[in-house]
């Protein structure tokens, strides 16, 4: 095992500390606390002037904490389904999000300086958390095949590119995307898929022993799934106009997710061996309804419309896992570890299309063409940005894992020796036997 | 293994999709967003006109999210204690709750139409989540011995019956039950026990190899226990009158639960072999204080009264697990997998009785006789409704599991082969050995 | 194995029930619900009269629930990293916190009686939860080497002593410590270390087979880590002055924690074998930034200052785990199971020192000398109180575990026999084989 190539000593500490020092310096120069006169960044034209902005600076705090849980517990544990990659999934998720929220606060803030300063409020830290979601989605596409060093680089580049596209979508096109189906989900998915394509590993074409789950790792992943599922209404409504618009965003997401669960379970059983349910589908496709209703969440699509979107999202997402993912890997050389194309990619596009239709039908003020431009822009920045980022990540000195060590924590983490556990169990076993 | 009888292909997908399509059609006809003129459904006479209804439509949202976590993480993981049934516990919990919240929103809403419409607000989705709790409690009684097909049928019937009883209790009897000790906990428990009785399996009389926990499954269950325990004050106060009444409901529940923990631990150690603690008691009996204080939560019982209720609840619940559950199984043919009789049944009745006494003592406006009628009604609807539902579930074509395959996920789920795990561990083992 | 000495029957039930009965009696005498005229206890001079106290008695409830999750899920699961001690970690954590919050509500309330009564509001139950944190931190220092009986005794004594020191710091010195770096973290850590010193076990000097983690136990511990990390902004801002001061406390903690993650990961990789990451560092040192910024959280230190504190905290905490903990054990006879000295001790002192400097620099009203007195007082009460408590806990009849049974749940818990699991896996294995 050529461990010298995977040894992160020096490379990782130096990169991580350097990035953090740069962050601290930039915050020292640009960041101040909101003093109550700030407006907060806002991807929607509808309330860019925040006419209804609540007086209490803490009013969005519970929403922020729900989003925070989705980012750190939701995304982190969702990826722990791999049998030997749990440390990296939840651990590197924490690392990337911790860096990303600082960087996102800056890159988004630079577009909205007040007297040359970024005034930090709850609204801005919610958007900072949002920006990290793009990286965590892309992380899912390359999970198990990249080093923490490569991923830090991806985080820095992806969030910078995200912020440009978001500014374009929100402030130039003035398009609606309150739940970020386009600017976060579709963007993050296709960015990650582009990276995965560039980092294609032919040797893994026939799978890898550790590229799979065990019983307990699937249980840990369900912690992530359920927390994401529960708090998605907060994700889609956090930055909506306060009051009844926000309530509508909550209700639409709540109902879309509920409908999505039924269709995901139904299709999983329909396509699986002996009508059984497949954990991969349940862990992921049940969330597609939250992604797909994102753009329309604050539009007058009605409970009926929201549920229809959720129903369709659950179906296409499950079918994607079953039939599309294998084809992408074998035909296009896109090895999508977590199937982000099925959870974030296609449902994200579905959300964008639904938004175009909804706006065209007058469910919310806006221009259908601008919605279409926003979707195209998000996909374009994602594919090009991801390809370029992938090429940089492919440089041979980022401590990337050799093929045979993919999907294995022990290459970047001190992993406890399970044997001791086995032994203690045996001991326990005999002790119990003896007591009988 | 007669897998043809357990094969869910067609049966499950068709039922799940049909139910979801019906839901979407009914929502299309009846559901609209609350526009601010709605009153919200309310099981309490005290504030059925919502004199204090807050202006901000989102004010109850944090409470809703706490309840949401109890439903999906709390109930879901609490049932993962079984060694080979974790996928079904958390997965089917998600399925039933996702269907139930849609159906509950409708069945509760039909009693309170505004201009022929159900106006959805946070108050209504909290009650929709509540209605699913009855099904999840009953699920615990039949856990491991029913198919997802049977459980979908149970969910539809139980929530419909629940809504009738709830309407009777809240609007006809005008009884107090803010924390739903009677209409959710006692109802759900006895409904499930009636179903379990009808589905009695003599072959399981002497237990089943998989009807037990392993170390890690008990740890997963504690995730459910602790989240239920923490957020129970929200469950009992979510629909209380805003302000100091709601604060009182929080404080009463907080203190009742704390007292309950001490008594549950004490009794567990007292009755167990060598004074040891039993995880089954800790996972369940520590929550009985939340159930038992439910009806009285918004009454002036005082911290002293709340703690006394919690203390007693912890004692009877633990004793129930130790001595009553085995008798119910052997003498009455009621095989209560999760012991819901001890966590929801007896403590629910205790809560109802405490409510009768508290109202009689003038701790809150109301009529003790109506409180008694509410308890009787809840038990009556539960036992009769559960028996009828059980008979329908007993029809031989719902893909129910044969006795030998009970408590085993692999009959309805694609379960990863643990052997691979074992192998990788061995490999790991030798690699580590080699490095030494 | 001298099980007779570890048999808790009678000792534990009698102590637990007696304590609970005493609590109920004291609550009956002293506790009433807040009627809106209460002020709530407050460790800060700045708002001891609560000029801005919000009208809505529930306004702090979401903050309370975040803190609640940190206490019961955060601390509970953080300690589940030990391979055979998960039941005790999360279970005894629940027991101690449930007793502690009742006792803390009383001991803190006695200093602030209104008409001879303790008026319970959300502010007071937040502080009650806070008081339990000291015990849970100390629990980490003696984890695996104490009996539940000993720990109940520790909880009663530590919270009483904590309340005296807190009163001194907040109301006599009128020092600032909004996030409790000094009065909770440093106090809890040094109290626990003093207890650990008194309970020194020479036989464990060369380690213990069960004093380590396995893969899944490290995953469970990450649940605790991430929930603590996410909700720390609530911990540090819950009792801050409402409005922009509270926002500042949130922002400072959010940024300090983010910076801390990067430095903790960097140093972990720097000092570990082959540049790998160590789970012990990730689980703990990533949180040091929350501890260290506690005292300064509501001061005008600026985002820059907060991040600098987090950066330094992550570094010293990781270095402490790597180099200091072994020395404390070998040279000073302080066996710190969870390394609380690195997570709460040193970062707590760092927080106290930062507070002295910040106040001296006029970042908040106050006297640097009083800040210094607060730190000295917290350390003094902790060391002396811990030593005395340790001596009482050392009395030979508290069912303490013999050396060879330390770090093993099976001595105080009914532990399921893993062998059955192994068997069922083998069965599963062959069944799958057969199906092929």
Descriptive overview:
The structure is a homotrimer of 436-residue chains. With 436 residues, chain A is an all-alpha fold. Chain A has helices spanning 3-6, 11-30, 61-78, 86-109, 122-142, 148-172, 181-198, 215-237, 244-271, 279-285, 288-292, 302-332, 340-360, 368-393, 418-435; strands at 31-33, 118-120, 277-278, 413-414. Chain A has a two-stranded parallel sheet with strand order 1-2. β4 (413-414) of chain A pairs parallel with β3 (277-278) of chain C, so a sheet runs across the interface. Chains A, B, C: Pfam families: Ammonium_transp. Chains A, B, C: The chain crosses the membrane at residues 12-33, 63-82, 94-113, 125-144, 151-173, 179-200, 212-232, 244-267, 304-324, 344-361, 373-393. Chains A, B, C: It comes from Muraenolepis orangiensis.
Query: Helical content of chain A, roughly?
Result: 55-70%
Strand order of the largest sheet of chain A: 1-2
Secondary structure category of chain A = mainly alpha
Strand count, sense and barrel status of the largest sheet of chain A are: 2 strands, parallel
Largest interface: A-C, 70 and 66 residues
Total E-strand runs of chain A: 4
Query: What order do the helices and strands of chain A follow?
Result: HHEHHEHHHHHEHHHHHEH
Q: Provide the residue-averaged pLDDT of chain A.
A: 92
Report the sheet-strand fraction of chain A. Answer: under 5%
Low-confidence stretches of chain A: 38-53, 419-436
Key words describing this protein structure:
homotrimer, 436 residues, mainly alpha, 15 helices, 4 strands
SSE topology:
The structure is a homotrimer of 436-residue chains.
Chain A: H1 3-6, H2 11-30, E1 31-33, H3 61-78, H4 86-109, E2 118-120, H5 122-142, H6 148-172, H7 181-198, H8 215-237, H9 244-271, E3 277-278, H10 279-285, H11 288-292, H12 302-332, H13 340-360, H14 368-393, E4 413-414, H15 418-435
Parallel strand pairs in A: 1-2
Helix pairs in contact in A: 2-4, 3-4, 3-5, 3-8, 4-5, 4-6, 5-6, 5-7, 6-7, 6-14, 7-13, 7-14, 8-9, 8-10, 9-12, 10-12, 12-13, 13-14
GO biological process, one term (chains A, B, C): ammonium homeostasis
GO molecular function, one term (chains A, B, C): ammonium channel activity
Catalytic activity (chains A, B, C): NH4(+)(in) = NH4(+)(out); methylamine(out) = methylamine(in); CO2(out) = CO2(in)
């Amino acid at each position: 095992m050529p461990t010298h190539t995977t040894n992160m000593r020096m490379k990782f500490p130096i990169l991580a500390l350097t990035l953090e020092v740069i962050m601290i310096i930039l915050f020292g120069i640009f960041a101040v606390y909101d003093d109550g006169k700030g407006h907060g960044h806002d991807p929607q034209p509808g309330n860019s002037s925040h006419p209804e902005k609540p007086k209490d600076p803490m009013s969005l705090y519970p929403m922020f904490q729900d989003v925070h849980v989705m980012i750190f517990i939701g995304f982190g544990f969702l990826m722990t389904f791999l049998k030997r990659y749990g440390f990296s999934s939840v651990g590197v998720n924490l690392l990337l999000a911790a860096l990303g929220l600082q960087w996102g606060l800056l890159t988004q803030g630079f577009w909205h300086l007040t007297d040359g300063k970024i005034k930090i409020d709850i609204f801005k830290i919610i958007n900072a958390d949002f920006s990290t979601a793009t990286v965590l989605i892309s992380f899912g596409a390359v999970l198990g095949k990249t080093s923490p060093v490569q991923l830090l680089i991806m985080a820095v580049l992806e969030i910078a590119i995200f912020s440009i596209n978001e500014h374009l979508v929100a402030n130039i096109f003035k398009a609606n995307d309150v739940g970020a189906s386009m600017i976060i989900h579709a963007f993050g998915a296709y960015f990650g898929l582009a990276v995965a394509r560039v980092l294609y590993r032919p040797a893994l074409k026939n799978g890898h022993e550790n590229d799979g789950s065990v019983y307990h790792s699937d249980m840990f992943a369900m912690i992530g799934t359920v927390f994401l599922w529960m708090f998605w209404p907060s994700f889609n409504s956090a930055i909506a106009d306060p009051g009844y618009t926000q309530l509508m965003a909550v209700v639409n997401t709540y109902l879309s997710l509920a409908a999505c669960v039924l269709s995901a379970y139904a299709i999983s059983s329909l396509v699986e061996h002996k009508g059984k349910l497949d954990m991969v589908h349940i862990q992921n496709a049940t969330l597609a309804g939250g992604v797909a209703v994102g753009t329309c969440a604050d539009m007058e699509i009605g409970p009926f419309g929201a549920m229809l979107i959720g129903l369709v999202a659950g179906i296409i997402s499950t079918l994607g896992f079953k039939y599309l993912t294998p084809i992408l890997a074998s035909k296009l050389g896109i090895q999508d570890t977590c199937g982000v194309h099925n959870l974030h990619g296609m449902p994200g596009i579905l959300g964008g299309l639904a938004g175009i239709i909804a706006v065209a039908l007058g469910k919310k003020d806006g221009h259908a063409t601008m919605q279409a431009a926003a979707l195209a822009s998000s996909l374009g920045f994602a594919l090009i940005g991801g390809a370029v980022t992938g090429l940089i990540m492919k440089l041979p000195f980022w401590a990337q894992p050799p093929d045979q060590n993919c999907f294995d924590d022990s290459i970047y983490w001190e992993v406890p020796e399970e044997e001791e556990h086995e032994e203690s169990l045996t001991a326990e076993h005999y002790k119990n036997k003896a007591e009988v």
